[in-house]
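Minutes, project check-in
Item: structure for the 385-residue chain
Input as provided by the requester:
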Amino acid sequence: MKYDFDTPVDRRGTDSLKWDVGENELPMWVADMDFKAAPEIRAALKRRLDHGVFGYSDVPDAWYGAYIGWWERRHGFAMKKEELIFCTGAVPAISSMVRRLTAPNENVVLLTPVYNIFFNSIINNGARVLECPLKNEAGSYSVDFPALEKALADPQTTLMILCNPQNPVGKIWDRETLARIGALARQYHVAVISDELHCDLTEPGTEYVPFLSASEDCRAVGIACLSPSKAFNLAGMQSAAVCVPDPFLRHKVRRGLNTDEVAEPNALAVPAAVAAFTAGEPWLDALREYLSLNRKTAEAFIGRDLPAVRVTPQNATYLLWLDVSAVSPDGEALAAHIREKTGLYLIGGEAYGKAGKGFLRMNIACPRAALEDGLARLKDGIDKY
């Protein structure tokens, strides 16, 4: 089946967080895509809607089988049914785990720049953010292991939140890096939450490594957050999972999720996930090809027309991480200027931690015509700065 990613979808007037903007504005900020969900998923949801009764839902064996089958088939990682727990989203689960796995004012380690909502989940739940900035060598990011060991060895540190692949820098962590993180975390008795929601959005021919698959240390300390929400554009379905191999850690996580009432599905959450992981593979492969060409289009445009901007080399996510430090050391101020002058809505890199200063994040998961419009606005805004 040929899938259509070029036809625009008008999202205005649909209560879209992303598109609640001015008439002439183009939002390329929050990480959701401007594509319709796969027709196979929409058909499954239509069948559920046509049933007409939307009472309380349980989590059936089909849901467990869909997750287990997908991760084994696509990523070579075998999960067990008892290790999986349904949750309404990665962020609610992470917030719950911060409350359950830390005491007030204990440290949660973040490798920055990283997804900005992690900061909210930590601070809003009484813990402290301990930033461990990634090393950035000409746009190539890596873990500063001496700094990470120091952070994990701090007696006040009880939890680490990892982004795998890393949002916003688009880095796929290799097995050796993940295993070293797991070994240090186990040595210093620190649990590791690995947010893997972008794991299926890799460059064609490029694979990610599940944190829990990297070593026995990773399985002993690790909790993986999984979902079809990013890859299949289903964020509004409130459908996700956590995988926790260690029984003791799993008990604590399960109790927290149930206490916080974020472990029960709505009527559409399960059918959406099952359809994505059992019937959505051809659509996803076509999407990845489309996103790859979008990335190449953006890189070529910026390299040709915006020589002061450097695109970070990336092999995952649909987010550009743009080094604009030669234009302005203040990414937030530059983003505000670009929005005011052109209507292009981006996010300044400072939102992702101190290491994001002088960067912009740009979502390119949109029809190519919209991407070209956004790139033209980006150039216009920077030229006027």
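Outcome recorded: The CA atoms of residues 194 and 224 lie 5 Å apart.
No further action items on this chain.
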